[in-house]
Amino acid sequence: MNADAIETQALSKHFAPGVGVSALTLSVPPGEVFGFLGPNGAGKTTTIRTLLGFLRPTGGEGRIFGLDVWRAREAVHARVGYLPGEVHLNPAWTGQELLDRGARLRGLRDVTYGLEVAGRLDLDLTRRVGALSKGNRQKVGVTLALMHRPDLLILDEPTDGLDPLVQDTVLALLREARAEGRTVFLSSHVLSEVERVADRVGIIRAGQLVRVDRLPDLKASLPQRLHVTFAAAPRADLAALPGLTVTRAGLLSVEGLWRGDPNPLLRALAGEQVRALSFTPSSLEDAFMDEYRTGGPHVA
Ligand SMILES: Nc1ncnc2c1ncn2[C@@H]1O[C@H](COP(=O)(O)OP(=O)(O)OP(=O)(O)O)[C@@H](O)[C@H]1O
Fold first, then answer.
1. Rounded distance from Cα 133 to ligand 1 centre (Å)
2. Where is the signal peptide (predicted)?
3. Do 118 and 100 touch, CB atoms closer than 8 A?
């Protein structure tokens, strides 16, 4: 059976009209790290909780390894390691006790990998969860999600509250999971961390999946930032060029974003008195900020 790790068809979860997640259609093949990005309140957690059958879809359907996320949720859970956005653990238990309990619940005899993960995260398993800092509780959550080497990891903001060194370790663990052919669905609002680990990214905004792309394609499609100053007012109407979105225009200058083949722009400028011209790639960060705010540039 070659089912996708995750497949959704118009999957929706509405809490009220216009609130929640709308008609999400997405496929994540096995062995991929998929970064799920979006601003606060965009619907990342709702999507994840629906994929795990904690919330009943109000429309469409979702499958994990071919299993219906609502009707077969218990079978789904057996294939998944889940880290919730907020880790709630019994404060009276130690990390070791939670690890042993997790192993028992999953019928896992060998906790060697769980111990290795905890060690690499520099987590003291002898301490009670109630006595741990937020970051250390997060490490317990990460360890519990990873310990059984699940086929699919669904992680809601896994590096939240962790220091940069530990964040690096978590991302390394995710890359190792991919190297073993396992799948990772990683929600985040931090582009820079997703960029370091994801094969593809999806951007959700106001409950809608607005873009899904491979990272290199996304980078290649970014517009160039253009800044031209003139010695004399230009005669051509540069704003009319289809590739140009003007962000600022003066009598003797134009700033904007250019998409696609630069030759029409160069031809238009050839007849003008150009004093200076700069043409620079915009950063991925810029592109994401545009996407967050407006739904982003429509790249051909
Ligand atoms: N149980 C609920 N009842 C009603 N509305 C809800 C419920 N859970 C979430 N929402 C609403 O659904 C929308 C999506 O919320 P969600 O928590 O999925 O966003 P998010 O992308 O995970 O945000 P964050 O990055 O802040 O965690 C928000 O408008 C939120 O207020």
1. 25
2. none
3. no
**pLDDT digits 0-9 by tens, 43-100:** 999 999 999 999 999 999 999 999 999 999 999 999 999 999 988 999 999 999 999 9
Question: Angle, to 10 degrees, between the axis of helix 134-146 and the axis of helix 112-120?
Answer: 150
* Nearest CA owner, ligand 1 atom 27: 40
Which one of 36, 46, 156 would you pick to mutate in the ligand 1 pocket, going by the greatest count of ligand atoms within 8 A of its CB? 46
- Is 294 buried (19+), middle (13-18) or exposed (0-12) by CB count in 10 A? exposed
Does the structure's ipTM exceed the value 0.90?
yes
pLDDT attached to residue 297: 41
Report how far ligand 1's centroid is from the alpha carbon of 15 (Å): 9
pLDDT score at 220: 75
pLDDT < 50 regions, the chain: 296-300
- Picking from 275, 115, 80, 94, the residue whose alpha carbon sits closest to that of residue 185 is 80
CA-closest residue to ligand 1 atom 28: 41
pTM beyond 0.80, yes or no? yes
What lines the ligand 1 site, CB under 6 Å?
15, 19-20, 38, 40-46, 85, 189
Which domains, and CATH codes, for the chain? 6-214 (3.40.50.300), 223-281 (3.30.70)
Q: Is 114 exposed, middle or buried, given 0-12, 13-18 or 19+ CB atoms closer than 10 A? A: buried
| Strand (E) or helix (H) holding 170 | helix 164-179
